[in-house]
Write a structure and sequence with these properties.
It comes from Staphylococcus arlettae. The protein is an alpha/beta fold and 109 residues long. It has helices at 8-17, 31-45, 62-67, 93-106; strands at 2-5, 20-26, 50-56, 74-79, 82-88.
Length: 109
């Protein structure tokens, strides 16, 4: 299930309410952001109980400062509200899935 995060507050609630949360930060008119999105969604969909959120930096500009983001796209994995993995601009899907798998398998499901 994909959740659109429309504020910094919604972002914090999202990562704190899910054991494992993946967040895709993008901007309008970013072709790479839009190309990576379905790939990340595909990876996340293979893991039940992993929440997936999208935050559009064009609409929530303050997120760049909150997360120290200098370029997009940025894909992040949070475990119990803490950032555990980050990839920006050029997303290595194999590495991203490996990290997600390690975190997912470290929890009891």
């Amino acid at each position: 299930m994909t959740i659109n995060l429309n504020s910094v507050t919604a972002f914090y609630q999202f990562i704190n309410n899910h054991e494992i949360a993946v967040v895709h930060v993008m901007r309008d008119n970013c072709s790479v952001c839009h190309a990576v999105l379905p790939q990340i969604e595909g990876v996340v969909s293979e893991y039940p109980n992993v929440a997936f959120g999208i935050i559009n930096q064009s609409e929530v500009e303050a997120i760049a400062g909150e997360l120290t983001i200098f370029t997009v796209p940025v894909d992040l994995i949070f475990l119990n509200g803490k950032e555990m993995h980050r990839q920006g601009r050029f997303i290595d899907m194999q590495q991203f899935e490996k990290q997600l798998s390690l975190m997912y398998n470290s929890l009891e499901h």
